């Protein structure tokens, strides 16, 4: 009979009392009253369920039986031969099966019958399945009983309370959580159980098996999703109903969540500029006792009485109160009296919790992760777990659901602490004997701290290709009176791919560079030194992120400085003999630069400390990919990328729309990538377009190679990779395995086969690398047709494409991939592993010696029929015929016999069998480590594998851009790129013929519904560098500005542009001021936001920049707004001399610049007719036309919006009145006021800087008022 080895399951003694034993108060019974169980029992090796015993000391003491002994329980036997029912009749019946190795019985159900092999399929209550021959097994049939328990539910609530008191444990007899039929016995045995006493001496041993065993009997196969089945108590008529978090009725507002815990901080800082996020805000919220609904009714009183130290007189672990300057709310002081009242298991849990109060503990007990006390409320609300019986909050889930539940909580903003069991009860017993210890609780250790910035595995990573960055930031003040007054260092980590981006840069008071990085990458978690960042930096973090998790570290001690960071980094790259290995090139450059990279190194130090606390540092660092921040951000002498600040990224909706999604964005239009890592690369390209003509032309050539003749090859490439996993993340997980899981993680007692998952991921990585190499190699056929140097570099083996065929062949020869996938273990082939080959050769030699010895014995006895036989576990028995027995030597040891034969072992055979046993054990041990050794070999080439992923990603993006051109509305062209203009070569230019919109597509619009336009800006001495754009409301002005800016971005990433022709001088930076929005949380009004973005343009724009201003000045009065708009336009045209588009409804500006050759007057054409009531009706033509538009026709928009006719008529009359009055005032442009306008704009440029240095609005409002007065005087001509 074949049976698996014991998996740690133990027979239950008393189920109902065990379920809360771990977290129940130790009984105060007299130890002298404890009784030992009767050691005598049935010596049969196959005891019945009722008489099974273990070698351990009994966990529970049972009261003495009555004087009249009970008759022995007779086991129920299977159907006898008298009835002989068909085997198929057993299907559906409940059964108990005895497992000899476990020495216990397990219950399940017969699921099916296979007539061919005469075996029944048994599904056990824990979900495991097994095929057995029932007649050959020791089984018992379980008779189905009517669910009498349901009748008990119809009793009144008073009866329920009485029964609870009788139970002695404060538990309701109804287990609203479980539906296993075995639970029906619980209610029947209440009276019996109430008389039982827990053996105090053995209680701690009981605690270690309670959760496993209790759940083992109560878990059904329906729990595959890790959830306990709910029972609708209301329908059963039970007067006492349990209501969990999240069950509120519709329309009922949820109460404030307190004790049940909250997520993490919703943002950084508070409304007040001087305030920053308290690092303990979450810890405090997780302990505030504000339970709601039935949870409050069930647990509220207990928690209010028992946990007073969480509120009044609360202290941190070092005894400091909340008003202390160094108070740490992440920890908790536990009063001695409280600790004395706890059992060993309870004390262990509270010791972990007191040091990690801001985290949710997943506490391992056997095969389950348990959540207790305040954590249980979070589990019930966020994970849909069900409370278990008892007065203490308690819920949990099976080991296999760990990844799923960690992912859920982390994504919702919680910190999760995984506490693993690192010792079995058997190991505890051994430790107690060896050390003479009285410890009664198994060892547990922290193995992981998971947040949404440190997720390495989970469902969200499978479905979402976007990177989740963890960002560490620090800063150092620079000299005063400088435009850029702060040096900022940042370290960005994508934990799922092992990528570190490190660098530092100088930033101004508005933190434009920092805001650009935050808008591009949107970090989900931030690490910062506590109470050191300036208010301007805090504001930038708060206003340009989407509710990140915030961690404050103690400066120097936790957030390391540059010197400490260098020391720690070198430790990661030390070999076992103490010698230092070479650092990655990026880290080497940072270390060598010393003080010139102090901020960058310090930010890396803060990040390393945080990763160390999360047990991820060793996993990531050794095989990490380190890159520097782009040169454009670092302020290098040679700019390689166009700069898109946060305003440009958001206003143009390059990566995200206003709601944070990707629908309708430029990224969504261009994203035809088939790989997740290709999608991430496309986002980086869009956020940082190229500013190097040669590189752009190389990309254009590569994209052109995938069109026409090369299209079919490109489509084959896409098809081959369409089912490819996220290789970048998959490889990072494999590299982390070989670099160490942390000492505690290695010691964790796991029941799920983690190695099988690792094996499947390893094989998936091998197949993926093989597929990528094959797909990339298939594109080499284009090299003879393509002129692209970039394509040649990418696809030439040894240059861009790594030569890894030999390495992959090595792993292919090492073992059978398909066999390993199906069996879950690696059988290495010869030459794959030295240890395995050595063991196999040893076994082969021993078996050869046994064969040789057999021949010698045949010759010695003189009988050639003597041979080896195996009987049970006895192998290599010499079977000698009875006729030759007289010739057997005296040293032969008789082992067994059968009719006509005798079986012997000799000393020589026994010696060889011992050697064979040792060799086979060595073989098994080598097979256990073969997977780790193969992954280690694979990871030695981690840089090469990453290079293969990088090449595949770049090819995927190039093909995606080639395909994207087919989705434009109208024709597409390859842009003509010119070097950036300078004073000798002429002014920068931009020319587009029939320019369409890159996002509007033919499948979303009717054919020809979008009107293309010709746009010409700059190019020669007589050409206007600015377009002053007027036109009716809703006429398409903002759309034109956006499509010009997006066309420039497309051109400089190397993609085609939706136009018949597009000529462009390189643009170094795009500035966009568009839309009306405010930053109320930052204390910024709409008008201040408008001026802030404008001031950024005036201070940072160059001759090669592109500026798009949409209706500047509308946030204030007409006179002030018009004055500011005129001043800004004048400054950009006369001083900066950049290219730009300026849309406005201030028609006075068109009159002022009517004869200015530097400014082209244009408007969006329309047709005006008379409608009902004499009101004007406007037909939009959306055509860019020379000249200015006399009116904005706002009343027409009011008509379209449905404003009542009477109101419209009144508005039209007022409009005519205003125009007749205002139009009589003449306006003369004069060169004399140009200098005055420049002076005004210089004052305006200082507005934002002045505003950022004050906590209140009053100061910078005075500055704005002064500028407004000067501009008003300028307009009036005084």
UniProtKB/TrEMBL annotation:
One MF annotation (Gene Ontology) recorded for this entry: mismatched DNA binding
Residue ranges with Acidic residues bias: 172-184, 196-208
Record GO biological process: mismatch repair
Protein name: DNA mismatch repair protein
UniProt keyword list: ATP-binding, DNA damage, DNA repair, DNA-binding, Nucleotide-binding
Assigned protein family: Belongs to the DNA mismatch repair MutS family.
Residue ranges with Basic and acidic residues bias: 159-168, 185-195
Originating organism: Rhynchospora pubera
Segments for region (Disordered): 1-92, 159-229, 263-289
Role this protein plays: Component of the post-replicative DNA mismatch repair system (MMR).
Keyword DNA-binding found: yes
InterPro entries: DNA_mismatch_repair_MutS-lik_N, DNA_mismatch_repair_MutS/MSH, DNA_mismatch_repair_MutS_C, DNA_mismatch_repair_MutS_clamp, DNA_mismatch_repair_MutS_core, DNA_mismatch_repair_MutS_N, DNA_mismatch_repair_MutS_sf, DNA_mmatch_repair_MutS_con_dom
Residue span, DNA mismatch repair proteins mutS family domain: 1024-1216
Segments of skewed composition (Low complexity): 24-41
Bias type Polar residues, positions: 1-23, 268-281
Gene Ontology, cellular component aspect: nucleus
Residue ranges of domain DNA mismatch repair protein MutS core in the record: 661-1003
Biased composition (Pro residues): 61-78
């Amino acid at each position: 009979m074949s049976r698996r080895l014991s998996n740690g399951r133990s027979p239950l003694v008393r189920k109902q009392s065990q379920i809360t034993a771990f977290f129940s108060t130790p009984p105060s019974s007299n130890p002298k009253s404890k009784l030992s169980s009767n050691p005598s029992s049935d010596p049969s090796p196959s005891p019945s369920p009722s008489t099974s015993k273990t070698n351990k000391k009994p966990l529970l003491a049972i009261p003495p039986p009555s004087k009249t002994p009970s008759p022995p329980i007779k086991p129920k036997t299977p159907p006898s031969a008298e009835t002989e029912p068909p085997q198929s009749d057993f299907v559906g019946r409940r059964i108990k099966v005895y497992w000899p190795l476990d020495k216990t019985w397990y219950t399940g159900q017969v699921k099916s019958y296979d007539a061919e092999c005469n075996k029944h399929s048994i599904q056990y209550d824990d979900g495991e399945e097994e095929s057995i021959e029932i007649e050959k097994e020791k089984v018992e049939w379980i008779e189905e009983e009517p669910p009498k328990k349901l009748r008990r539910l119809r009793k009144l609530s008073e009866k329920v309370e009485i029964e609870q008191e009788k139970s002695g444990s404060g538990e309701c007899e109804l287990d609203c959580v479980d539906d296993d039929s075995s639970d029906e016995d619980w209610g029947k045995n209440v009276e019996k159980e109430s008389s039982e006493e827990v053996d105090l001496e053995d209680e701690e041993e009981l605690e270690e098996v309670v959760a496993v065993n209790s759940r083992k009997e109560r878990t059904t196969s329906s729990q595959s999703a890790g959830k306990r089945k709910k029972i609708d108590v209301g329908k059963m008529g039970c007067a006492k109903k349990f209501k969990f978090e999240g069950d509120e009725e519709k329309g009922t507002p949820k109460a404030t969540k307190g004790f049940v815990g909250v997520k993490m901080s919703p943002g950084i800082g508070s409304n007040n500029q001087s305030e920053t996020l308290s690092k303990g805000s979450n810890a405090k919220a997780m302990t505030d006792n504000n339970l709601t609904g039935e949870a409050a009714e069930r647990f509220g009183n207990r928690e209010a009485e028992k946990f007073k130290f969480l509120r009044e007189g609360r202290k941190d672990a070092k005894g400091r109160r909340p008003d202390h300057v160094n108070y740490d709310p992440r920890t908790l002081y536990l009063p001695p009296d409280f600790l004395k009242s706890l059992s060993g298991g309870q004390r262990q849990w509270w010791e972990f919790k007191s040091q990690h109060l801001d985290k949710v503990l997943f506490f391992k007990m056997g095969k389950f992760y348990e959540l207790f006390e305040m954590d249980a409320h979070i589990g019930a609300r966020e994970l849909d777990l069900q409370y278990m019986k008892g007065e203490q909050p308690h819920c949990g889930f099976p080991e296999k659901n760990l990844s799923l539940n960690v992912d859920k909580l982390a994504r919702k903003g919680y910190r999760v602490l995984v506490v693993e069991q690192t010792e079995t009860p058997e190991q505890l017993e051994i430790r107690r004997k060896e050390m003479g210890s009285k410890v009664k609780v198994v060892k547990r250790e922290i193995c992981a701290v998971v947040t949404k910035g440190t997720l390495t595995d989970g469902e969200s990573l499978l479905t979402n290709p976007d990177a989740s960055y963890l960002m560490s930031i620090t800063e150092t003040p620079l000299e005063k009176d400088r435009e850029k007054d702060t040096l900022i260092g940042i370290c960005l980590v994508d934990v799922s791919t092992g990528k570190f981006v490190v660098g530092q840069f100088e930033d101004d008071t508005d933190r434009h560079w920092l805001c650009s990085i935050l808008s591009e990458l949107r970090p989900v978690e931030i690490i910062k030194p506590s109470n050191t960042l300036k208010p301007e930096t805090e504001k930038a973090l708060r206003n340009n992120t989407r509710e990140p998790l915030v961690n404050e570290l103690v400066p120097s001690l936790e957030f390391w400085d540059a010197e400490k960071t260098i020391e720690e980094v070198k430790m990661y790259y030390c070999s076992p003999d103490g010698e230092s290995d070479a650092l990655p090139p990026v880290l080497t450059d940072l270390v060598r630069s010393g003080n010139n990279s102090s901020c960058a190194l310090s930010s890396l130090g803060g990040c390393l400390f945080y990763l160390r606390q999360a047990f991820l540092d060793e996993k990531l660092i050794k095989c990490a990919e380190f890159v520097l921040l782009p040169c454009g951000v670092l302020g290098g002498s040679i700019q390689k990328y166009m700069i898109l600040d946060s305003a440009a990224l958001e206003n143009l909706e390059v990566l995200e729309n206003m709601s944070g999604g990707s629908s309708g964005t430029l990224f969504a239009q261009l994203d035809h990538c088939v790989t997740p890592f290709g999608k991430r690369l496309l986002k980086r390209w869009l956020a940082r377009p190229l500013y190097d003509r040669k590189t752009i032309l190389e990309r254009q050539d590569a994209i052109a190679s995938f069109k026409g003749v090369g299209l079919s090859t490109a489509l084959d490439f896409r098809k081959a990779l369409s089912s490819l996993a996220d290789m970048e993340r998959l490889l990072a997980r494999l590299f982390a395995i070989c670099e160490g899981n942390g000492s505690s993680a290695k010691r964790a007692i796991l029941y799920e086969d983690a190695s099988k998952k690792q094996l499947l991921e390893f094989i998936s990585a091998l197949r993926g690398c093989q597929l990528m190499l094959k797909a990339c190699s298939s594109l080499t056929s284009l090299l003879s047709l393509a002129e692209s140097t970039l394509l040649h570099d990418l696809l030439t083996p040894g240059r861009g494409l790594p030569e890894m065929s030999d390495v992959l062949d090595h792993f292919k020869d090492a073992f059978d991939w398909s066999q390993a996938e199906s069996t879950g273990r690696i059988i290495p082939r010869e030459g794959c592993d030295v240890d395995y080959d050595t063991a196999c050769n040893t076994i082969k030699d021993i078996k050869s010696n046994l064969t040789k010895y057999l021949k010698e014995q045949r010759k010695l006895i003189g009988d050639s029929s003597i041979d080896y036989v195996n009987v049970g576990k006895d192998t290599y028995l010499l079977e000698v015929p009875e006729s030759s027995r007289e010739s057997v030597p005296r040293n032969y040891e008789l082992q067994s016999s059968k009719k006509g034969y005798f079986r012997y072992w000799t000393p020589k055979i026994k010696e060889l069998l011992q050697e064979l046993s040792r060799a086979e054990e060595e073989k098994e041990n080598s097979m256990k480590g073969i997977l780790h050794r193969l992954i280690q070999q694979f990871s030695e080439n981690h840089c090469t594998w990453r290079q293969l992923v990088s090449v595949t990603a770049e090819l995927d993006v190039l093909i995606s851009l080639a395909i994207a051109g087919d989705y434009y509305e109208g024709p597409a062209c390859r842009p003509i790129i010119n070097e950036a203009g300078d004073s000798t070569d002429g002014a920068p230019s931009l020319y587009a013929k029939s320019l369409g919109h890159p996002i509007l597509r033919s499948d979303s619009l009717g054919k020809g519904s979008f009107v293309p336009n010709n746009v010409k800006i700059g190019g020669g001495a007589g050409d206007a560098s600015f377009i002053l754009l007027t036109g009716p409301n809703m006429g398409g002005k903002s759309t034109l500005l956006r499509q010009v800016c997006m066309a420039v971005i497309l051109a400089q990433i190397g993609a085609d542009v939706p136009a018949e022709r597009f000529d462009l001088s390189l643009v170094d930076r795009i500035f966009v001021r568009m839309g009306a929005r405010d930053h109320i949380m930052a204390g910024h009004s709409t008008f201040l936001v408008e001026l802030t973005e404008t001031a950024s343009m005036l201070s940072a724009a160059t001759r090669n920049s592109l500026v798009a201003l949409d209706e500047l000045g509308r946030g204030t009065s007409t006179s002030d707004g018009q004055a500011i708009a005129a001043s800004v336009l004048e400054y950009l045209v006369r001083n900066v001399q950049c290219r730009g588009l300026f849309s406005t409804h201030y028609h006075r500006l068109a009159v002022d610049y009517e004869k200015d050759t530097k400014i082209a007057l244009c408007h969006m054409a329309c047709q005006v007719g008379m409608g009902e009531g004499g009101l004007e009706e406007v037909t939009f033509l959306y055509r860019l036309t020379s000249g200015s538009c006399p009116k904005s026709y706002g009343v027409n928009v009011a008509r379209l919006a449905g404003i009542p006719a009477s109101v419209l008529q009144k508005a039209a009359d007022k409009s005519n009145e205003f125009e007749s009055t205002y139009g009589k005032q003449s306006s003369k442009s004069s060169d004399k006021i140009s200098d005055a306008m420049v002076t005004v704009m210089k004052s305006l440029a200082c507005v934002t800087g002045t505003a950022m240095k004050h906590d209140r609005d009053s100061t910078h409002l005075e500055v704005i008022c002064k500028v407004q007065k000067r501009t008003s005087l300028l307009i009036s001509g005084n």
